[in-house]
Design brief:
Blueprint: H1 11-21, H2 23-35, H3 38-41, H4 49-56, H5 60-72, E1 76-79, E2 82-85, H6 101-107, H7 110-115, H8 118-124
Antiparallel strand pairs: 1-2
Helix pairs in contact: 2-5, 2-6, 4-5
């Protein structure tokens, strides 16, 4: 008979695993920031969520949610009543050498959908990209 497994009560281990489980949110936040134009609207001078929403043609509250996700991931700073792009965000701008804008668009759409079908591919051998 199998011995019962011990429940892992190590908060560092739980936090590390949770970070892996929720990694898809970072991909989608970056994808949305590029696709909506928020990456291009953010600069080095603070702009509030209302001004940024006007620039990208969205609602202030919706843009604010996306901005908070970028802040948590260390890509945007909140200061002086507004939001400022950090240097790392520049890698999503097309005028930056070696930019990763196209990668953000790809990984947030086609690749994201294909990876979501990994269990299907593992079970059937069918290519996941055929399902997206």
């Amino acid at each position: 008979m199998n011995e019962p497994r011990a429940i892992v009560d190590d908060s560092a281990a739980r936090q590390a695993l949770f970070g892996l489980l929720s990694g898809c949110t970072s991909t989608q936040i970056l994808h949305a920031a590029v696709r909506t134009g928020l990456v291009d609207a953010l600069g080095k001078s603070p702009l509030d969520a209302t001004a940024l929403a006007e620039r990208v043609g969205s609602e202030q509250e919706l843009v604010l949610r996306l901005l908070r996700g970028l802040v948590v991931r260390g890509l945007v700073d909140e200061r002086d009543g507004g939001f400022v792009a950090k240097d790392l965000l520049d890698l999503l701008r097309p005028d930056t050498p070696g930019y990763l804008r196209d990668a953000a668009l790809f990984w947030g759409s086609q690749a994201y959908g294909a990876w979501a079908e990994l269990a299907h591919t593992t079970s059937t051998g069918d290519p996941a990209f055929d399902l997206v």
